Amino acid sequence: MKSLISFLFAVVFVSAAVFGLTSCTEGPGTVCEPDDPDKGNEKDDPTSIKIPDFKDYGRGTVDFAKMTYSRPDFNSAILQLDSLTDIINKNELSYQMQLNKIKSIEHIYINVSSMASLSNIYAEKNKSDLYWSSEYAYISTNYPRFSQSLEKLFIACANSTYAQEFERDFFGKGFVQKYKDGGIYSDKVVALLSEEAKYEAEYSAISKSTVNITYSGITDTYDNIISYYRDKYGSNSFEFAAILTYCEELYKIAAYEKSAQILVDLVKVRRLISDEFGYESYTNFAYDAIYHDYTKEEMTAFISNTRRYVVPVYVRLMSLVFNQFENTMLPSDLDTPTLINTVYDTLKEYDGDMSEVFSYMLQHNLYDIGSSSDDRSDLSFTTYIDSYNAPYLFITTEGNINDYLTLMHEFGHFQDFYVNYGEQTSIDLSEVSSQGLEFLMLTKLKDNISEKDYRYLKYSQLKNSLEILVYQSFYAAFEHNIYELSYEAITLDNLNRQVSKAAKDIGFSPDFYSDLRYVMIPHIYLYPCYVQSYSTSATVALELYFMEKENQGSGFEAYKKLIDRDDSTLSFEAQLESASLTSPFEKDFLKEIADMIHYDILGAHYYTTSNNQNAA
Questions:
Q1: Which of 153, 184, 203 is the last residue of a domain?
Q2: Residue 548 contacts by C-beta under 8 Å, 6 or more apart in sequence?
């Protein structure tokens, strides 16, 4: 189970949307129950999801439909934590009695984390459901003061005469060193983190049921205006179709404007947070305190090498292959049962361990895979529900073969959460879990889909990998720029200017991204300085792919070593080294990866082995 110390790290800086860290279209419980005696009859029906025979996995997981939500009582929880802190500080009880009391409050933080995950899942299932969006906002804005009380308890334990025993018997390695000299939660920090969470919740709640537009002199939410004119003219009328099209554009403009202002507010409050911690910029704070085991300078060099080595290969392949490839017919009409059954059959054929985890997911309905709708979030994510020791996978599908890769991406997270009980070592390694499985399964799906579909999927995935390297590095450069601004300089105009600067940094023309609407991606709002993890992990995922192609089984072996890690305290690069994989920051590695992609598609090298000249 996730340790209490790792829980505190999560609640400080990670939104509830990826807590611990991203099914059927009708939601949990609509697939047959795992213990349904007639379930076996569905196995011969190609239109149904094949549910494997139920088995007890020993995790205490129940069907998702049976998981219950109750709003956490933060005042009561904080009172219990503060009372226990007083007991530890007074040190009047025996060690065993104090340890027992510490263990007795474990259910408090497990409940808080679980309710955070459940509220987020339901909020993303239906963004027009104001109950769930308000629950999500309530929990996320109360996290900071809860974390403050939890930290006070940690500091008391780390300074107790029994500190070493507490570390040995409960908290784990590194606990005393981390908290002996105090914590980070001043009242001002708590207030700033709560303000940040408020803006994040506002962004997450943006939908057609919450954003106002003005049409024909009426100002109301998009949903209400559309409902009025649908009733007035009829849903199949020409008049309603014209109003619907016009109001869609009004909504997009209003949503962009609201999002842009929220981003300005977020950058400002994050600047104040980094100032409070004594950092020169929020960028420095994020690299040092939140996500990464590497430095801003290393990532800046990575971005520079992306421009130098990856962008030229991307531009060439777009011209010679991808532009033509994109004009071909996209294989479509992939329904959810076919998607799930094909992936399960492929896993079962090639890896029994992975197929067993997939079986667990199906048997407990720990997924929601559905098509896009006005109310449903377009996000795909995986989270962890601590109370039930259960990961949960959420995907909004496109209805075509690209959904195979999306499912494998999120199942990579799901499997990592399953094996490690929700505990993460680094965001970058977590993204290797997802992108790595995408590429490894690409080598196996070849036998289970048509040759035409496989060729399309391969080109789509390699193109996507190049775009991850290029565009996520662009987003990282953009965040570097905006978080270096002084508080007074944080305005919408200046953020727009930083978009152009970031485009130039990555090798695009300065007007390639002309305004903020092109960077309206959730991570910039909810997970600051996260996007670079997609770029760094993409290089490792590609290395796994080429390993597997060269020597069948070797890529899977290295991947599983990363998932089932022996020492969770190792850094990202140390974990890669333990699996005999290359650091994304190693000299010329990006050049080698870009060249291997070029060769895999065209059968010719882009770079010579002796110099940097174009060899194709």
A1: 203
A2: 439, 440, 443, 554, 555, 556
